[in-house]
Amino acid sequence: MTIQWFPGHMTRARRQIQDKLKLIDLAVELLDARIPLSSRNPMIDDILLNKPRLIVLGKSDLADPRETEAWIERFKYEGHECIAVDASTGTRVGEIPDLARQLMQEKIDRQLAKGINPRAVRALIVGIPNVGKSTLINRLAGRNIAITGDRPGVTKGQQWIKVGKEMELLDTPGILWPKFDDPIVGYRLAMTGAIKEQILDIEDIAFYATRELINRYWDTLVERYGIEEERPEDTEQADEIVRIMEAIGRKRGCLISGGRVDLEKTSGIILREMRAGKLGRLTLESASTY
Ligand SMILES: Nc1nc2c(ncn2[C@@H]2O[C@H](COP(=O)(O)OP(=O)(O)OP(=O)(O)O)[C@@H](O)[C@H]2O)c(=O)[nH]1
Ligand SMILES: [Mg+2]
């Protein structure tokens, strides 16, 4: 399968970010707490150059809290300030302006020493499509100014939004990068909703999602769908994954003529429920293994 996922507007979006860098004091790099590694743009250092940066792990309400803590430690160890938030309820979002100010403190002190009154901190928010950039900005601003939506590609252009008196945030369209070195990165981005459904083979994505669930969250899978199958011994065997998908489909009554399982319908259920957190809080990438 080829994922056709690098439409022109993303190249444009990247260029627009680079054009704005001169105006920006700080970058907020928003990652998906369920896939902190795969949601990280490998070109981010090239795009942001040496701008001070705050890493925010978004959708942390959907991720495994222990894994999220480990990722925060990991990013801090690498020298980045990092915080996990849930922008859907606003949990910990209120700490972001303070952290941003701390990152800017040296510059602010320098300006004060020169007798210059520091202006509002200008921050840019970057991240993959659908990770929650606009939702986070709305939370910070305390009102719904940026358009949000449960699909990738909602924000089409840049927009400055005032956050209190001391901060201005630039919302940007989600960007992906031209090539995934490891195909699993593409599948994880697709599973968690960063790639447009229309260009995906949903059975293919659900197949990889089921494989990850078997490997990492087998008990949750059994509990959610009430399947009575043996746990596959070798998840590299495609039929073993399909066996579990079919068991889920049968439990959910996804059948077509002849009593066969409707895999497309089953795939839709697995992906929808996984994305909505119905399978519990899942993290697909552990800080300890990377
Ligand atoms: N559970 C949960 N959902 C979130 C969170 N943040 C955002 N969402 C949801 O994720 C979806 C995408 O949010 P947006 O803010 O539109 O995402 P975006 O990054 O601006 O997306 P693009 O503009 O398409 O790049 C929406 O349905 C939000 O309600 C979060 O912290 N937790
Ligand atoms: Mg947006």
TrEMBL record:
Gene Ontology BP, a term: translation
The organism of origin for this protein: Paenibacillus cellulosilyticus
Name the UniProt record assigns to this protein: Ribosome biogenesis GTPase A
The terms describing its cellular component in GO are: cytoplasm
Q: Which GO terms describe its molecular function?
A: GTP binding; GTPase activity; RNA binding
PANTHER family, alphabetized: MITOCHONDRIAL RIBOSOME-ASSOCIATED GTPASE 1
Where is the protein found, in the record's own terms?
Cytoplasm
Signal peptide start and end residues: none
Please state every residue range assigned to the domain named CP-type G: 14-178
Does the record's keyword annotation contain Hydrolase?
yes
UniProt KW keywords: Cytoplasm, GTP-binding, Hydrolase, Nucleotide-binding, Ribosome biogenesis, RNA-binding
